[in-house]
Design brief:
The structure holds two protein chains of two kinds.
Chain A (H helix, E strand, L loop, with lengths): L3 H15 L3 E4 L1 E4 L2 E4 L12 H10 L5 E3 L4 E8 L5 E9 L9 H10 L2 H15 L12 E6 L8 E5 L2 E7 L2 E2 L2 H12 L1 H7 L5 H10 L2 E2 L12 H4 L3
Antiparallel strand pairs in A: 1-4, 2-3, 3-5, 4-5, 5-6, 6-7, 7-8, 8-9, 10-11
Chain B lengths: L4 E4 L3 H4 L2 H14 L4 E5 L15 E5 L3 E7 L4 E7 L2 E6 L4 E3 L1 H16 L6 E2 L4 E2 L3 E7 L20 E4 H5 L14 H12 L18 H10 L6 H7 L7 E4 L6 H15 L5 E5 L4 H17 L9 E5 L9 H8 L7 H4 L5 H13 L7 E6 L7 H10 E11 L13 H5 L17 E2 L3 E2 L1 E3 L8 H11 L15 H6 L3 E4 L10 E5 L9 H7 L8 E6 L2 H18 L7 E5 L6 H14 L3 E3 L15 E5 L1 H4 L4 E7 L2 H5 L4 H10 L2 E10 L2 H15 L2 E5 L3 H12 L2 H15 L2 H9 L2 H13 L1
The chains are: A alpha+beta, B alpha/beta.
Chain lengths: ~230, ~750
Amino acid sequence: MSSIGAVEQSLNSIGKLYGDILADSRVYKKDREISWYYYSAGIAKRVCYPREYQLLIDAQQFSFLLTDGSFFQFYYSFYDGGDLKKARLAFYPAPMLIEEKQDEIETYIDTASEALSEVYFSMLEDIDSGSGFYPGKNSHLRVDYDHEVVSHSKLHLQFGALNEFRLSAKSICLPFGFFTMILRSLYSDWYVSLSARSGFRDAVRHSYNRKTCVDEHEDIYLDVGDEVRLGR
Amino acid sequence: MDQALKVLPGSLEIDNNQAAKEVMDLLVEKFHNCEGYLAYKLTTLSRESEEQSPTFIIMAKQYGIILVDVVDEEIVSFSEEEGKVVWMCASGERLFSRSFLMDIFVDDVEARLKNSLELYDRKSRRVKIPISSYIVLPRNNLPRNELAGIVESEGVSNYLTRPDLDAHLTTIAFEEAEISQSELDKTISLIEGTSVFEDTFSVDFTEEKTLGGMVRKSLQKIFKQDDAQRQVSMQVPEGPQRIRGLAGTGKTIVLSLKAAITHKRKKNYNILYVFNTQSLYGQVTGLIKKYYAYEAKSYPDFEDKLKILHAWGGKGKEGLYSFLCKKYSIRSLTYSEVRGATHPLQFIYRDLIEKGGVKLEPIFDMVLIDEAQDLPPELFQVIYKITKKPKRIVWAYDEFQSLGDMKIKEPSELFGVDEYGKPFIDDDLLSGEYLGGIPKDFILPNCYRTPRPVLMMAHGIALGLYSRNGYMQLFDTASEWEAIGYRVKEPQKELFQEGDEIVLERPEVNSKNSMERSFLEQGLEPFDLILYERFDTFSEEVAWVVEKVKRITEDEGVKPEEIVIININNRAFSKSEALRIRKDLSDIGVASVTPGYVESTDIFGVKGCVTISTPFRAKGNEANFVFVMNSQMVSNDKTFRARNAFFASLTRTRGMCFISGHGDGMGELYNEFESVKRNFPCFSFSRPSNSKVSFVRKVLEKSDFELDEISSSYENLRSDPDFLIKLIKDDPELLEKIKRGFEDE
């Protein structure tokens, strides 16, 4: 089970092992809560991802900022007895634009279905009207844990672009594991050089051994962090 | 000047009240030797309308407060009706007793003065400043002691009639008093209502001995209108007016107050306040709201009558451009249509004139333009068209904001010419004075933000006064130097010439920031406000900066949000340098923001965070502690742009600054720093040769793009000296020119 001490240790490992790629660290602990300075709850709804990203970064809502502008949020709160009450592990990539140009989109329309053509047309209109709107192609992803929630699963993976979709999970590793999984998938160059450091395997092992498990039987399960376990 | 009574005519010129003008002249004659103010309708003391307040208020050291109400009617009798006293006039008009209204007003003046214990004795419950009041009846010819039956005698006020006016007020023994300068200052700020900008009731617990405490303490005292600001802010001009002043001289507060008092006095006026920096929006509305709410006990009409607009605006927020496009059904250009333009603002206003120039009609009674130096001529032309006669256009201009435009643009250039080539606003429209002796071209000489040593360092380096090769002599007349707050000691003539030995002094009175004095009181030197250091490498420089930040935040009570680090380097690597500083600060546990690189560009001074910025982005912002890094760029830059950036960066500071740089160029700059320090509070230098001056002017006239082109071609040529020599040898004309150039040296 993840304890407050284990979470702290795992966050420290991020600072120690991944310091080279961190532009800023804002981890903050108060009583039974680990978050970041000026933590405020809530997610911006009904705005495009670049705006969501901008609002959060301007309000300093991150635990770790990477040198490319992407950031992580790690929020934990514990019961007085030491059990985990709530957790949130999130990754916000630096926003990227679609790479297609106007003429490429025009060629897509030739063969696109009716519904999809509508989408492409409105994209072209936006480009034509000069409002300069190009859809962003990425979004945030996060793992939420809430011990008290009843309306949906306690632990699940969510994506900003499909906010109502929750992929339930059986367990969640500590921050270092989550961070490492993102590095391994999205920043392979960094991963290769940083994972060679001494202490890396210990930190991965620690973050997996002290994972939080939930026992729910009526949902799809995904063992977030499993892949990282072996440091593959 | 300091001995004489100052006049605040307010809107008297517009109201065109002849009786009041006559009385004002007599009052000026009577009180001209007093230290203080004579003001027309200065305040209504929170009344909605100014009908009920007296015409003049005099606040002077020798007399305390004298209220004078001018009633431009012949009064024939009075009567009491349902608990009201009513005055009958010869014209048939019936007036609510002015004497009764004055009684209430006197009570309200006392109530305001009670806000300060300096002016109010709690034990005796008495106000220490004597208040006397007079009702002037210029149309009543009877002597004042024969008014029985005409006006009631119960009120606190004395009456004056025609014979008193004809005798030039010599018939009256005004009650004399003796009040101190600080009592007078306090009285004025309470009466005029600007005391709302002071934190009267807040108590600061910080230890004054720490640097942080000292700076904050000195800032607390800072809001006090000076004579120059008060004269211009409390006046509604009957035509165009220019207000000049350096950064931190109070241009924005002057314009905001002008907007607020005009809005209050002239309820039917359509007023526009326009500016260029988004962040000013909050500041300007805040100032106006605060003053207006206090004085009028209601909310300013920002929707309709008093528009505060950014020059551009957009879909989300109305600006002047989008407002006009909407009003005249002109399709507004979108951001992407403008993206390629070198000067987007100029581009959209030019487009507006082309598409809708004929449609534009006068809709505003008064227009206030802040940051005029940053706005294109096309905008001024539009403003001219949308302002009603007599063109009450007031613009605030900072002639030192951009070294490239050092020469101030005169109105004919700013507002352009009509189809016959005649200027819309003639240059000489700005010469002369408005009523009350207020210049049409007004200079705010006092710098509030920046301490004197820091400001002089900024001027000295920016103008290269002590530089071996960066020398730029831009001000060639004594009056130009005086306009930015210097006193010319030598030579004693208006126009400077080649070879003149020039000595300038910056008098302490022109720097209202009290940091210098606080430092002296603590046994420190004025130049302890500026720390400068040179290093071999950028890494060493960063380490010093981080160490200083750590020390002042840990030991000196400085909050991170009071610190701004400005990187002079705006070229390659500036982003990675900023992030490097951020990371190193993060490593010692100090949070920071990097607006424009990570956060949005307007994120500045976030609680708990140091701000890391560029000279351009820091513009319009200020901070108590400013670090300027990569200063070596200043002496390496042949185009003077880095000197400009250095000036802009240093003048952000309200307290201390820390200057650093590294590498070869830093040695030369260090010597310049030392020269500024050695000569403080003077500058002493000789006027360079005409050829040098004209070269500098030539460089300054070039655009950034041209300068970049020239620099890179030069670097290319330099990299192959043999080839360069061959080229020059083959061009005898050029060779001759180069030879002559060396001989001139």
